[in-house]
Design brief:
mainly alpha, single chain, 4 helices
């Protein structure tokens, strides 16, 4: 019986950044070495222990911070370019954040009001990420796909309700 071949890598469509490093020599993309196992398959007491993290992690130190900042900026740009709801919420934030700085009487009030607004952007980014991942897997109508998208939408709605609640409590005392 022959061993099954590894699936070919998925194409990188849409101009997104590839976040993973190439596998080390002798590694198969779907089978990272296990703890206590040498990357090239050597086992035993003399094998160098490997971390339990993915072997496809990128750089470390300052280069990792630079890479992460680039990936984050690319994610913000993609959300702004492709998501109408995110653009609307960014414009809303552009109005509400300065208003919070003006209307808040204490630093805590300002921080709460701004955090509530930024929370909407965070939840919208996560919702958009879930939708993009689900759409990448399948565009068919499926109960679980609908559930995932509806839950993401509900999370955004709760974040928006939170903005109204926080701002009302701060401004109306």
């Amino acid at each position: 019986m022959s061993e099954p071949k590894a699936a070919p890598p998925l194409p990188n469509t849409g101009g997104t950044t590839n976040h993973s490093a190439k596998p080390a020599s002798g590694q198969v993309a779907g089978n990272p070495p296990q703890a206590g196992e040498h990357p090239e398959g050597h086992k035993g007491a003399n094998a160098t222990p490997t971390p339990t993290e993915s072997p496809f992690k990128g750089k470390t130190g300052l280069q990792r911070v630079r890479n992460a900042a680039g990936y984050s900026w690319a994610g913000l740009a993609a959300a702004f370019r492709h998501e109408d709801a995110f653009r609307q919420e960014v414009f809303l934030a552009a109005l509400l954040v300065p208003l919070a700085l003006y209307l808040g009487e204490t630093g805590i009030e300002r921080a709460l009001m701004i955090a509530a607004v930024l929370g909407v952007l965070i939840v919208e980014l996560l919702n958009s990420a879930v939708e993009a991942a689900v759409d990448r897997i399948s565009l068919e109508h499926h109960l679980l796909i609908k559930r995932a998208k509806d839950m993401g939408s509900a999370a955004v709605m709760i974040a928006l309700i939170n903005v109204v609640a926080v701002w009302s409590l701060v401004l109306l005392g």
